[in-house]
Amino acid sequence: MVKLTFIQPDGASQTVEVEAGLTVMEAAKLNDVAGIEAECGGACACATCHVYIEPGWVEKTGKPADIEEDMLDFAFDVRKESRLSCQIKVTTDLDGLTMRVPAKQF
Amino acid sequence: MALDDAGQNVTTGATEFDAVVIGAGPVGLFAVFELGLVDVKTCVIDILGKPGGQCSELYPEKPIYDIPALPSVTGQELTDRLMEQIKPFGAEFVFGERVDELQRREDGRFDLKTDAGRTIVTKVVVIAAGGGSFTPKRPPLDGIEAYEGASVFYAVRRMEDLRGKDVLIVGGGDSALDWTLNLAPIANSLTLLHRRDEFRGAPHSVEKMRALVAEGKIRLLIGQMTKVHGDNGVLEAVTVKTADGEERVVANAMLPFFGLTMKLGPVATWGLNLNENLILVDTEKFETSEKGIFAIGDINWYPGKLKLILSGFHEAALMAQQAHKYVHPNKKLLFQYTTSSSSLQKKLGVK
Ligand SMILES: Cc1cc2nc3c(=O)[nH]c(=O)nc-3n(C[C@H](O)[C@H](O)[C@H](O)COP(=O)(O)OP(=O)(O)OC[C@H]3O[C@@H](n4cnc5c(N)ncnc54)[C@H](O)[C@@H]3O)c2cc1C
Ligand code: FES
């Protein structure tokens, strides 16, 4: 199992344990993490699963692909560490990954 | 409220129909087919400028794997094939208009009104409104609502309104680029703001835009809006966060292009029984709490509902049986197969 931590804008933090192979978005939805809407169900077509990767993890999660960058144009307050969580596959390498949930998903 | 890509209508101008289908998503389109087989003439209305609903607007290029007998079909292909399949029935299409009002008349039929002022009379109504009507995304900036319609526009109705203005266009897709190119000659000043120095839009538009920047005719700014400034709905400036810090960009007109989202919209005000924003229907006829008004596809709810295209297709078939009873009360409906019925084949134009 892989541990993932989501930090809400108010500082509340929630750590979930999921199996490798899911996406980070699916992990969040399965565990009712607030603020991850994922309207399109992970098709990289809605940009409502936006998260900020905590410093130190950006290298491990990698850079967004072109289609993800295009979709990030539709997200709000996009930063260097912005990712769409449906485009990150959970692997054992990501055990301990910490992310911030944005204040708004548009 | 027409959307930016509102297309050309192919209408005969007729105002009376057997059935009006609200929504040209896959389920609304297939409803035309099922209604056509039972001799119900339809008109389809959609706020978008083109058919296909979510399939063509949200994922035209992505493959769908669970359409029976089509192992893989993209959202656009599915739409194109449905349009081909329903062609024999000559449905009327009204694009770029939103159905705002729905009322029963004294003669039992319904009056429908669109936001463009069009009125249509129909015997039955089929709501295939999916996740709701597509609506431009509103940038989540505090207080932006106050400027909408006066200084903030999600679509351009009349270009002349923007002559001589200090225009700020926000976004990196085709709408943002096209309006940048169109408005540059008539605006007093024009700034295109995008979060990165790469654009999703058509390459030749990007080239033209860059040429205008090089000639000093427009300004390209890389950053994101954080605050709007102004008074009484009149925009004065926008604070933009850039790589170098913050900047105040003077603007008295703003065009944000952040794509579309689905909002239930007027459907909620038609007096139908709802369950968490979805229209309650029975599972025999997919009829709502009002006789003669049906709801099919993503917009409806019943125990066990799955928001799948294939479920919507099934709902359309059963809906049509009951719609036939209302439209042709004195005609008996024979159960027939398209494979073997010569009368169905005649309607389909294959015999
Ligand atoms: C990324 C993504 C992937 C998907 N993948 C699949 C899949 O693999 N398999 C599957 O079965 N389903 C899939 N779906 C779901 C599928 O797209 C929907 O179930 C389907 O589009 C619903 O069709 P519909 O015709 O009911 O509504 P929609 O496609 O939502 O169309 C409704 C239309 O009604 C219009 N409308 C609404 N209100 C009004 C009004 N008042 N006036 C005028 N027009 C109005 C809207 O503008 C819209 O065009 C996916 C969805 C998404 C977003
Ligand atoms: S869930 Fe829609 S883009 Fe990630």
Brief synopsis:
The complex is a heterodimer of chains A (106) and B (351). Chain A has 106 residues and is α+β, with helices and mostly antiparallel strands. Chain A is built from three helices and five strands.
Would you write up a description of this structure?
The complex is a heterodimer of chains A (106) and B (351). With 106 residues, chain A is α+β, with helices and mostly antiparallel strands. In chain A, 17% of the residues lie in helices and 22% in strands. A five-stranded mixed β-sheet of chain A has the order 2-1-5-3-4. In chain A, strand 1 (2-7) and strand 2 form a beta hairpin. Chain A starts with a strand and ends in a 6-residue tail after the last strand. The relative contact order of chain A is 0.30. The model of chain A has no long low-confidence stretch (mean pLDDT 94). In chain B, the strands form five sheets. In chain B, strands 1, 2, 5, 6, 7, 8 and 19 form a seven-stranded mixed β-sheet that branches. Chain B has a six-stranded mixed β-sheet with strand order 14-13-12-11-10-15. A three-stranded mixed β-sheet of chain B has the order 17-18-20, with no helix packed on it. By secondary structure, chain B is an alpha/beta fold. In chain B, strand 6 and strand 7 (110-114) form a beta hairpin. Chain B folds into two domains: 2-134 and 261-347, FAD/NAD(P)-binding domain; 138-258, FAD/NAD(P)-binding domain, CATH 3.50.50. The longest helix of chain B has 19 residues, at 309-327. In chain B, helix 1 (26-37) runs parallel beside helix 3 (75-86), helix 1 (26-37) runs parallel beside helix 6 and helix 4 (174-183) crosses helix 5 (203-214). Residues 4-8 of chain B have low confidence and may be disordered. At the A-B interface, helix 3 of A face loops of B. Flavin-adenine dinucleotide sits between chains B (22-28, 45-48, 53-55, 58-59, 64, 66, 98-99, 128-134, 265-267, 297-298, 307-310, 312) and A (40-41, 43, 45).
